[in-house]
TrEMBL record:
InterPro entries xref list: Kinesin-like_fam (IPR027640), Kinesin_motor_CS (IPR019821), Kinesin_motor_dom (IPR001752), Kinesin_motor_dom_sf (IPR036961), P-loop_NTPase (IPR027417)
Keywords from the UniProt entry: ATP-binding, Cytoplasm, Cytoskeleton, Microtubule, Motor protein, Nucleotide-binding
Gene3D superfamilies in the cross-refs: Kinesin motor domain
Stored SMART domains: KISc (SM00129)
GO CC terms of this entry: microtubule; microtubule associated complex
Organism: Dicaeum eximium
Protein name in UniProt: Kinesin-like protein
Primary localization: cytoplasm
Length: 346
């Protein structure tokens, strides 16, 4: 089973409406998106398109996210990643408006794919009793350094290693067990607050790093009798559910960045370019594929399993309908169309 890329079009913002931006993206229903502007008239087809009016719940149910949760419990490596330019709604789609403070939680209707998946996982976990063990790890890739968002103290760079059995993995990353919604949401909040964000021309609170939250799902097949001590008597399945919030994919000149910020923007774009390159090569028919350059960036190394065929991956491409974002919107739609041709054998 392989969910194709889903497209989400956000509403025009107040600023865009005041500025007189036109809506150049229209959903034609049945998975088709039409982009119409001077010199540009293109239609793209996808398996799911969510228009400006689509609720967070509609995106959860219509994107195949619930099936991804069930596959993770069955021992698959599942990944969902949000892609698109800054301000197109990636973080909102994944997390909703993260609570401003402990006392002011977000309204339940606005919760994103992450919290809805946690609810789904915890329901399954409760129905299976102690057969399911859940733990989480949370990393960010900032300026090509992998940093742990859960370990105490200032985030420090962790080495990325490769082994024959595990593929690419991060050494010494912290895994925290959780059994309740409060516990996992507090880990999510704690990690997100430590993530690198900064204001630039496109967004006041822009994510300047790629963040990967991984839920590890270990399920034991059955309760062994008390006298059985060998672990082998009780085979276990290990699945993962990884949420990837990619940093914005836009040209440096549009962010108005300079100095340290332009270094950030360049390393973000380098890693997204590497990701795009891997996706383009994976989209070729199997016989014509050459070597896939996962080693080109930390991001592609960490996503190698999700992209390369041992996992099930859902891509949510977020776009703005504004005439001013036309070139970035077209570039996101082309990127998602290429991803659509990638087939894997999980």
């Amino acid at each position: 089973p392989h969910p194709h890329p889903a497209i989400r079009v956000r509403p025009l913002t107040c600023t865009e409406t005041r500025r007189g931006d036109r809506r150049v993206v229209h959903s034609l229903g049945d998975g088709a998106v039409h982009v119409s502007a001077a010199k540009h008239d293109a239609t793209f087809g996808f398996s799911a398109v969510f228009d400006a009016g689509a609720s967070q719940e509609a995106v959860f149910e219509g994107s195949g996210m619930r099936q991804l949760v069930e596959l993770a419990i069955d021992g698959f490596s599942c990944t969902v990643f949000a892609f698109g330019q800054t301000g197109s709604g990636k973080t909102y789609t994944l997390m909703g408006p993260l609570a401003q403070s402990e006392t002011q939680p977000a309204s339940p209707a606005l919760l994103g794919l992450m919290q809805r998946s946690f609810t789904c996982l915890l329901e399954q976990s409760r129905s299976r009793g102690s057969d399911l063990a859940l733990s989480a790890s949370y990393l960010e890739i900032y300026n090509e350094q992998v940093r742990d968002l859960l370990s105490p103290g200032p985030p420090c760079a962790l080495p990325l290693r490769w082994s024959k059995t595990r593929g690419f993995y991060v050494e010494n990353q912290l895994r925290v067990e959780f059994e309740s919604m409060e516990a996992i949401v507090s880990l999510l909040l704690q990690g997100s607050q430590r993530r690198r964000t900064s204001a630039h021309a496109l967004n006041r609170h822009s994510s300047r790093s790629h963040a990967l939250l991984t839920i590890h799902v270990r399920s034991r097949a059955h309760h062994p009798p008390t006298w059985v001590l060998q672990a082998s008597a009780c085979p276990s399945k290990q699945g993962t559910l990884c949420f990837v919030d990619l940093a914005g994919s836009e040209r440096v000149k549009e962010t108005g960045s300079s100095g340290e910020l332009s270094v950030e923007a360049n390393s973000i774009n380098r890693s997204l370019l590497a990701l795009g390159h891997c996706i383009s090569l994976l989209a070729k028919p199997r016989g014509k594929r050459t070597h896939i350059p996962y080693r080109d960036s930390k991001l592609t190394r960490l996503l190698a399993r999700s992209l390369g065929g041992s996992g099930v991956t859902l891509m949510v491409a977020c776009i703005s309908p504004s005439s001013r974002c036309l070139s970035e919107t077209l570039s996101t739609l082309h990127y998602a169309s290429r991803a659509r041709r990638v087939t894997t054998r999980p």
